[in-house]
Structure formats: C-alpha cells, structure tokens
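Mods, move this if it's the wrong board.
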Amino acid sequence: MMIENFKRAKESLPKCRPPFWAFDGHLQSILGHLLPSKTLKEKAEVIHISLQKGPDKVHSKYFEGEKPIVVYLFHGLGGSSEASYMHRTAIIARELGCHVFMTNHRGCGEGAGLASEPYHSGRSEDLSSVIQYGRTRFPHHKHIAIGFSLSANALLLLVSKHKDYILPHGVIAVNAPINLDRTSKNLNVGLNQIYNKTFLRELKSYIKINRLKDVSLVSKAKTMREFDEFLTAPVCGFTDHLDYYERCSAKKYLNLIEIPTVILTAKDDPFVSACDYFEAELSPSTFLHMEEKGGHMGYLSKMGPRTFRWLDVALERYLKTITGL
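Not the wrong board. Structure tokens:
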C-alpha cells in the first residue's frame, strides 16, 4: 500500500528540469552547494547523545514540534548540521509541525572534540543511538529518518543489515553511495577530482581539529581511497580500505529492508553511479525515485522564469506521504 502511495507522490512531482546554466551533473552539484538558501532561525535545544560503544557522543540540535512525528536529519561527508540542505529540510519538517533533530556525526560541526573515533559511511549504530534517544523521549510518536549522501548509505545499512538496532518507522535516503568501492574510484576520474580534493581537505581539517590521530600519514593521502586505507580502516577496525568498502556498502542488503523507504537519486550524479541502483535488488517496501537530472544533491530546476530547488519539493511530498500528513 505504501509503495502505491510513493508512486502517486512521484507522479505528482514535476520533473527536475535544469536551467541552462546548470545543465549537467557537475554544475548541479557545485551550484546547488554554492547558491544561497534559507536557514532555520529558531533557537534549538542542544543535546549530546551518548553512542552505543565507548564514551563518544554526538552533538544534536532539537526543535520541538506540535505533531506526533519526529524527523531525524543526518548530513553527508565533510558536512555538519549547518549544511544548507540540512537547514532547508528542517524548515520543511518544521512547517509540517514535526519535531526535528539535526545531528552532527562524530566530531563534526559543533560536536568537535566529543568523539575519540571518526565517523564513516558504515556508522549505522550512531544513527541508531540518535533514533533510540528520540524514541525513548517520544515513545508514542512516528519516527522518520532522512539521510544525505554518506548518511543515506549508513541509514540504508541500518534498516537492512542492522535490523537488531533501534530503527525509525520510515526512511528517505538521498544520493546514497551504495557501492563505496566504485564511488571512491569515480572520485579519481576527470572533473570528479574536484570533489576528491574538497573531501580530502575537509577530512584532514576534521582529523586535525579532533586530534584523532597523528596526521603524518593522513596528510600524505591524495585520494579518498588512500585516506580510507591510512585512517578509516586501521582506526575503525577494518583490514584495509577494501574491507571497509565491502562491509559498509548498502547495495547488496537493500532487498532486506522491511520498513517504508524512499531512495532519491539522479542519473547524472557525477560520482554515485546509477548502475548500482539498477543492479541492486530492492525489497518490496523500498521505492526508488531516480531523476534524469540533479547531480549530487543539486536538483536545481526551472519552472517558467523561476528556478527552484526540486529536492525540497520532493522531500516535502515524500515526507507527507510517509507520515500520512
């Protein structure tokens, strides 16, 4: 029944039709990130949520709602709760009357110094800890998690591979890199090296700020694969970067998802390959919405003389559908 509702939601949405100045995946991705957008101005309750393993905590901002629906937002690689897409989505959820948690991954944003280990694309237990906090605080509410990029993969892992953890009632995953090995290779090709350098710069700064490890080896990393080999794998208990990619890619587990799940992505995403979604086996409760255009979390679209953010419209529509609002 929910899948039919998701299909109707998709049919009611306009296509993402890029303006001429953002016609391809690279321009969508870059301009979608750089162009100004709305920010949430409300004052938040700051919460430090303890994680399941060890003394580490994450920093989360909570906004009280009026309806019995809790929305959790998790950011992408190199980002924080202050990312523009986090603010825009929080505004959408707040306008619908939802409670909202905007959460920083380990050591990110205002959570710098709260964790002794780094975050990565397989930290599903961290997302579960945040959801567990929310479900304990609001035991009779409906809980919906929205993950972007790296977090989208971790969220899909949570509701497929790690079903013994505390789960939300529904999921929306945006531009999830469900095949980490292929994504890391894509980042080394052509113009994608722009994103590779950006991610590396942000992650090296993250390591230095959080004092997680002697940066001598990490500073030599020139690709995300080398970063994961030098830091992610040894610090987080993987044999090497390939072991990390194999164990933490959601692609082969998507057929195990049992809760309502929407996956949003674009065929022209520069480094998350659409073919991985076509190859994956999806469960009966999982709905794939793949736009022809949109890049990596860009989704700048034109309607008449006006340019708007298509992703915001889609997230509102699917959030209404999955919550019954």
